[in-house]
Amino acid sequence: MSAKYGLVGYNSSRKHISISIPSSTEVMSPHIKSVEELRVLGINLSNLSAPTQFFICVAGVFLFYLVYGYLQELIFSVEGFRPFGWYLTLVQFGFYSMFGLVELQFTQDKRRRIPGKTYMMIAFLTVGTMGLSNTSLGYLNYPTQVIFKCCKLIPVMIGGVFIQGKRYNLTDVSAALCMSLGLIWFTLADSKVAPNFNVTGVMLISLALCADAVIGNVQEKAMKLHNGSNSEMVLYSYSIGFIYILGGLLCLGGLGPAVAFCSEHPVKTYGYAFFFSLTGYFGISFVLALIKLFGALVAVTVTTGRKAMTIVLSFMFFTKPFTFQYIWGGLLVVFGIFLNVYSKNKEKMKLPTIKDVRSWLLMRKKVRFLSQNV
Predict the structure, then answer these.
(1) Confidence check: pLDDT of 117 > 80
(2) Which listed residue, 175, 183, 206, 306, has the most CB atoms within 10 A of its CB?
């Protein structure tokens, strides 16, 4: 069997690394384990109670992604680094590829399942999402970037209307409207108080959102159709994306200045970038585990809370101008996210009607009246 799949080198000596590609006629065995066998970073969550599983996943999401956001803003706070957002993305893709390769060696089935053409498209979208997002920090405050990331629903709905001819209910439209108004409010506030605000940053993060809205659907379809694993997806999409970015930087002449700058500040660039990439990779693992164990509703709630905490910590740890318009714009975005989650989970989230609220108020008034008479 090992000779058939080209794993002789791996079985005879554990020191060798091998990745084999199956033929089209071979039957694919399931790779993604069930929830009962779920492991995250080597931690077996299957034998733990549900509250313990939830606590570990939430702690992992908050811990790693808060450190991730802090390190990302810390890197761009290095004087002179702002023009090198694409080089940071190149380094990040390189680290993600290595992490994916290492994780793949701990799996029994190392065959690539998803076609190369699909990975080329996913890699292109991933480059657009992360590259444009990192580059936008050269023009925007970090909280503004995070607020934009919370509003993925807007490009998803626009694409659904014009590409697939979808129709959305009043709740979805209201959610998109709240997010849009919140974004406008937050961006206008940023343009008034932020000294480094630039419309280019808004365009970059908006394009990153559009690519992010597409990539989720493509990844989900590819993994379900071909039964690919998370480690395989990370390895191939980020390694191909690494080649894309490297070629772009070489053609545009942006590689030399970035390498020269980072060589002068290796700890503040490569050192921070390593831990930035590592915490991001770990955070993804806990988010996926949260979705598998408790569903998308809980995962969205937790990640939204994490983003809110990231914005608060950003104002605490990094000196930047503040205005209360940030709060009102942010609350509108959060309310839009709540409406979006409620629209998809109406059966699980039964909100009280006006009649229920009225009955409750009358009952409370009656109880208060009786207690006063007694």
Answers:
(1) yes
(2) 175
Query: What is the maximum alpha-carbon separation in the chain?
Result: 88
Which DSSP category does 229 fall into? -
Residue found by looking up tokens 């702002």 in the block: 82
Q: Is the dihedral of CA 111, 116, 121, 123 positive or negative?
A: positive
What gap in Å lies between CA 177 and CA 171, rounded to an integer? Answer: 10
What is the number of other CB atoms lying within 10 angstroms of the CB of residue 87?
25
Task: Give the contacts of 102 (CB within 8 A, at least 6 positions apart).
Answer: none
Q: Distance between terminal CA atoms of the chain? A: 84
Runs of H (alpha helix) within the chain: 8-12, 50-76, 85-104, 116-136, 142-149, 153-163, 170-193, 199-226, 230-252, 255-264, 266, 272-294, 296-317, 325-344, 354-373
By the 10 Å C-beta count (0-12 exposed, 13-18 middle, 19+ buried), 24 is classed as exposed
Q: How large a percentage of the chain has pLDDT more than 90?
A: 9
Answer whether 34's CB lies under 8 Å from 288's CB.
no
> By the 8 A CB rule, do 294 and 143 touch?
no
